[in-house]
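Question (not urgent): is this output format expected?
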Amino acid sequence: MEAQLRATPPHALVATARRLLAERAGAQDVTLLLADYALAVLQPVSHLPHTEEPVSAHEGPAGSAFTHQSPVVEVLRDPDGHLVHLPITVRGDRLGVLSVRLPAGTASPELVLGLGDFATALGHEVTTAGRDTDLYLQARRTRRLTLAAEMQWQLLPGRGCAREEYAIGAHLEPAYSIGGDNFDWSTSADHLVLSVTDGMGEGIHASLLTSLTVGALRNARRAGIGLADQACLADQAIFAQYGGKVYASTLLLEFHLATGTVRAVDAGSPQLFRQRGDHTERVELDAQLPLGMFEETPYVEQTFQVEPGDRLVVVSTGVHEARSAAGDLFGERALRQILGATRATPPYETARAVVSGLIEHYGSRDLMSDASVICLDWHGRNA
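Got this back:
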């Protein structure tokens, strides 16, 4: 079945999934639901530009499968049967849910496990198909993105990543009008490089600045240059373009996967917290100048250590300096309360909970400033 999915035209993946599951599993209906940009609803992929009615990404059977990342079997009465909801996740990045309606008495554990494998294969094909069709990107939208947000989402690597040594979950708001906030990561056999960037300004101006910053950091990283020099080269690129009139705040982290040693360059305002057991502490790094503020600024690496079981959380200025409509600061106290309450939840749920708490504090999803959160659970390498 995976070979037939790979041979399917990008726009026809859902139709092919329906046919294959009808033939092989007796499926009576198959629906692909993709998480929207705000991670608020799951949107059924149907005839665009219109989709069927969305369902909650956090409530109900489909929402439970998405949130808890495990299959949910719903018993149907009219007509009798089962509706199996299967999470679709690609290397730790949650895409949505595949809902499969089966005849009564056929939803065996073996079949549900097989359907889960099929959902994962379909997720890989949906991700690949995004290079060649807008279908699945359009299906994720509850409304139109701003141009700045369109640029930012195309720049992001995803909203999650997982392997043996770590698991990452990330979230951005306001999802449909994000401007200057960005997160990025890249992994190799021995290292993980992670960055959080906040481009100065709003809208398209912030998005263009952040695009230049992330592009310069990636260019330096892919040339095999060390972390401090990555910051130096990005700093030079931004200053050459803007002459010090605008700048980008960036936190760069490089994890050595075998030892848990972390190299860091703090070039601006993103804040880093570490949870070890029940204790939450701010990781104090030497604050260095934001990228692009002055010509040829030198940057210096620092190191700290993570241990198996540690959780790291990075928040942008739009989180730790946010204020409500009444002027009340969200602040570190509120942030620590949310982090403590979500210590046992997966990283993606913690990142979402921080942003949800911020939205509740502000009183509206239309935040005045971009807010980004990255949560990383460190497992370490099993010798």
